[in-house]
Amino acid sequence: MSSPRLPLRVRHGIREHWEDANTPVQTARSAVRELLGIDVAIVVTWEFLAIELDDDYPDKSTLVPSVAAGVQAFLGGLREILDGEVDPEWTDTLLERCNSCLRLFIGVSREAEVLWSSKEAGLHVKLPMGVMPPLNELQPHFKTKLLRCFDERQISMEDWADLSAEDANNNSDPTEPRQPAEAFPDISILPRPDQLLLKPPYHLAVYNAGNDKVEIQCSHSPTLELLADYLTKWCKTIPQQTPRPPAVAIKLHQSPFGLGPIYDRLTMSVGDRNPHFFVSPMIVLSFIEGVLGYKSMSADGFSWTFRKDVEFRKLTYKS
Predict the structure, then answer these.
(1) Contact call for residues 282 and 266 (beta carbons, < 8 A)
(2) CB neighbours (10 Å) of residue 51?
(3) pLDDT tens, residue by residue, 37-76
(4) What number of other Cβ atoms are within 10 A of residue 297's Cβ?
């Protein structure tokens, strides 16, 4: 049972993605139990995980599905060892040491780890912090860690990608180039658009619609907000009119996706405000490249596209 001290979305996730007998992680647990012939107990302290993973999962609805996916990857690696009879001696050792019940203690660490605890007669399964790697990467890594959990040798995370490719292609010709398959993402562990789009790559496009309008589209809402604030601050006013309106109408447009205020468009237009002013995209282009560090991808004189692969740090775009 989950603690009432947990965030509501975490409690909901436990009920929907962990406790239900039909969930993938519980199905994987049942498969391992049948192969071993003994019970499999999974010990999770959700309060601890919620604290440790708080920064990694700002959208709390994705925390439990991600943990469940990580545990499923571990159970999948264990099932491959048991079902394929990879190392019968290892299986015998596991059965001898776990005393009629395999106990799995779920935690987190910088890297994924599997450690045997003689004191607790169980396996400590350490899920990697941050975004959970896909199943086809994490499962072979756990498989290798399991096979070495009873000795002192532990493989480093630097070999993770190589292990994934080797396990996926262990029957192929080693002289042929190998292309490991990528796991299709599970929608239940994907963050909301307002969180997802804060991660690079950031995409931006500028469109020049003549002398009276410029439109900027961007996947990174804070970029548009900063640009709008800067342009608004330095925009001239029309002194002949009352109450001295800005010479250019600068407007942010909300995205129809995500929660809360998130913007995907910025428009600059003059309309019939003042015939002496027209809108040029040049200040926008200079700001995007010179201040924010976006890199030009294409240009044709009427439209420009940019991309940025380096993540903006928190508060970088705040004034």
Answers:
(1) no
(2) 10
(3) 999 999 999 999 999 999 888 888 899 999 999 999 999 9
(4) 12
Looking at the fold, whether 112 and 61 belong to one and the same domain comes out as yes
Q: Which residue's entry shows tokens 């993770």?
A: 160
pTM of the model: 0.59
Alpha-carbon distance of 187 to 193, in angstroms, equals 12
Distance in angstroms (rounded) separating the CA atoms of residues 216 and 305: 10
Q: Is residue 3 part of a domain?
A: no
What angle is formed at CA 93 by the lines to CA 90 and CA 99, rounded to 5 degrees?
A: 140
Contacts 24+ apart (CB under 8 A), 185-188: 185/134, 186/65, 186/69, 188/17, 188/62, 188/65
pLDDT in tens, 182-215: 566 777 777 788 888 888 999 999 999 877 899 9
Question: 275 lies in which domain range?
Answer: 194-308
Q: Is 290 inside any structural domain?
A: yes
